[in-house]
Amino acid sequence: MSNKGSKALILGLGLMTLLSACSSGNDAPSRQSGTTDGGKKAAPVKLTMMVQNHPAMPLNPDWPIYDWLGENANVELEVSGFQGNWWEAIPLVIASGDMPDMMWMSGPDIVNKSGEDGALVNLLDYRDIMPNLQAFMEQHPAETEALLSSEGKLFMHPAYGPFGDVDSMLVYRKDVFDKHSLKEPQTYDELFDVLMKLKSLYPDSYPLFIEGLGDVNRLALSFGLGNSLYYDEADQSWKYAPAEANFEKLLSFMANAYANKLIPQEFGNMDMKKRNELIAKDEIFVSYAWFEQGDFTFFDSLKSSNPDFRMIQLTPPSGDGHTGYHTQQYLYQEGLTVTTTSKHKEEALRFIDSLFTEKARDLMSWGKEGVTYEVKDGMKQYLPVVKDAAFRSNEYGIRTSAMTAWFDNDANIALMSEDEKESYMEAVKHLAPAPRSVALSKQERDAISLKMTSIDKYYQENVSKMIVGQLPLAQWDDYVQGLYDLGLNDVLDVYNEASKRAWK
Q1: What is the pLDDT of residues 274-304, one digit of tens each?
Q2: Residues 189 and 157 in one domain
Q3: Beta strand pairing call for 45-51 and 75-81
């Protein structure tokens, strides 16, 4: 995010009128949450909360984190999980009218739509009772701006830190490179040459693993582009990366790699399980790795059969003279919302505000002192009982859905293996700036929704065909014209007008 954008947001937040309880239509009393009129501590209020029930960390309503954070805010949390696919479940819960006090949500699209439909409270209307959130927003303008609706409303709190600044990176088999005196490639031409050498050394291998177009979009960052639809700061306009000239150069690399069997021939149809099988058999040497899915834990497990095995961060090569990047700075966009049907709005709002205190940050990151961590020489460190990040989540509820508002990333680093830690520290040096985003109004969304769907489908089909050789690269110009025939200019015009309105 540009400095201009950051300053504009802080100024906008500072000047926005603070609505009183009377004028905003809420009936919140002015006393501090958790106290009686006589100043004595009140009995905790029960708040209902519905969160994501993720298969990797199935919800346990009795996780200690709920008690710890509840005690911190003098509330009792009654937690339940969305049934089935949460993306489908959230609208159903809203439509039923039987909503909890607070709901976990992810991403500005569903949040802002739900808020505009009247299901969620605008947090900015209650900043007078949320001083900790207000301070956090001023310190994290990019995270806040990305969640604002087209009318400048905030229906979900911003968040920071649960997965650090980088969620993925390119990695390579350093032990294999060292064995054959191969240098880290500095450019994509050098990367191609290295992959060809590996293919000759290991004929049954597919040296580079690219899962699908998601990985291709990340590689585009190293060719001076954004990820799909993006705002070009230099030109001050919105662009669609798969229509830009440099994307053709990336596509040429991908097509050549596929033709020479440097990437698996099932491009777009392979999962991480198959990738891991090929890595274990010395048939993949360069790939993307993800922190959240435990890739480095898997890499470390392979050392039991091959003590020399090392798969670590690969400094991203330059594409056509541009700076190489792993991905963009990670903006975490999950959090809690307060429903308009709640009978305990003030308590729910104050609970959210309490998540942005230093004490809550410690609880969400490290757990409880003496139970999960200790302080030694002024530094926090986990007790031996906390074996790894997965155990931390499944046993205590730390870094699970809705428990991630403000997180100390040092707690993540503390559980990393040496290779993972080294890779993380290097990867953060090679991040593209976080993407700018702008919220569209309902009218704007409706105007381009079908066009954007058609454009993305057309892009996916044609680019996939060009990579696997079913469509010649010589038809690039025809492909780009097809994007514009589907209304790409109309989409870009809507985004340009929306950004002028939002960033003025």
Answers
A1: 999 999 999 999 999 998 788 999 999 999 9
A2: no
A3: parallel
